[in-house]
Hints:
Distance between the termini: 78 Å
Shape: globular
Strand content: 15-25%
Strand order of the largest sheet: 16-17-18-14-13-19-20
Radius of gyration: 23 Å
Bound molecules: adenosine-5'-diphosphate
Largest sheet: 7 strands, mixed
Helix content: 25-40%
Amino acid sequence: MVATAEAKFSAPKIRQTNMLINGKWVESRSGKRFKTINPVNETVIAEVAEGDPADVDAAVKAARAAFESGPWSKMDARDRGRLMNKLADLMEANLDELAALESLDNGKPISDARAADLPLSIDCIRYYAGWADKLTGDTIPIRGNYFCYTRREPVGVVGQIIPWNFPLLMAAWKWGPALAAGCTIIMKPAEQTPLTCLRLAELAQEAGIPDGVINVIPGFGATGAAMVKHPGIDKIAFTGHYETAQKIMVDASTTLKRLTFELGGKSPNVVFADADLDAAVAGAEFGLFFNQGQCCCAGSRLFVEQSVHDKFVDKMLTSAKARRLGDPFDPNTTQGPQVDSDQFNKIMSYIDKGKSEGAKCLTGGSRFGNKGYFIEPTIFTGVTDEMAIAKDEIFGPVMSILPFQGMDEIITRANSTHYGLAAAVWTKDVQKAHRFAASVRAGTVWVNCYDVFDAAAPFGGFKMSGMGRELGAAALANYTESKTVTMSLG
Ligand code: ADP
């Protein structure tokens, strides 16, 4: 690991720390605020208004009015698309500021924010802007003298609850299909990283998206729970931990809200002996260490075929040791701190468990520096499927390398998890690639690549990794209801 020191980008001004309800930036009704912390040096960046049920209620009223009588549901779909494109233009025009704000609040390297989070977020809003006027129904031949057709109508007021690992991108993934479908929104950003969502909402106002269409209520789990319980919200879209999704399902049961979930994973990344090993090493490094390991689809079970295991491990070690930890504002940094002290402590406890359960820590395994939540890139070998580090989602820079022999064994082991978000396979043999892709129980399979995302390609989980799909045409189904109209032809 190499420390980096030189900062080239500077921290942006914090413009907005209030909540957005009905087009007005207001304090919370309780006056409560919470601190968002800089994970690099543990200092307070800003104090942000914290939403209570009363604030959620006000936001629901605004979103309901904007949906039912306001301009949003009445506006021509093409005009909605035009406003969304304007928002994408403004995001592009403010890319430097948004990337710096994301890096400051989350700790991610600014080079990643600029190369990944921002372009993907902008692309997502543009992609769904194009969908706004293309939500068509069907004409259906039925028995008798009738004309039968379906309409796709917006689901209504939607509550969107997002995590802290890709704060802006998660907002874009949620706003895009909801706005295109004609829904109105109450969003709760994660308590660790509210700042880019607030700025994005300012840009949405500047783009001309009408008051009440997007409301943002920062806060903790209790604020999210108030949204889930509120009878005026028709649907909850949630990204986060599966245990939180379980609570949301219970809380949503009284009002039978529509639910979509994008949850965690323990994704198998499988390297066959015939693979291009250098490409597989680079893909494995990216697939696990990218975003400090804080990715729901992280390739955290790295299976390597026995005959190339030792060679692969040597290469992987060299690659992990070359990672550059340090100030996220230094463009040469490839790894920043973990997002907060809770995540830091959780990851460190998994590293301890790995050691005590008998895995071999080849590199890393300790805190990096003495300030901030930095953790050295860590590689374990000698990992067995039963160890906690091979079963649980760690959400940090901790790689477990497990040897395997042959296709049948790897398919069974890859599927031996209650997760099913993503998987990858590295091989030059097309038959192996297709057989693996068809057999693994996961929502996304990458072949000879990792973490390739596109706004047009659906993403989501099998099993306990989620319900429904985000991105692509698939996500529009989350935000529309189908209405069947049958007319007598006399
Ligand atoms: P993570 O472990 O990634 O922080 P969480 O599932 O705890 O994942 O948090 C993801 C989002 O869900 C955050 O915005 C958080 O505030 C919110 N949240 C936490 N608990 C609840 C809850 N009971 N109901 C609704 N939202 C919640």
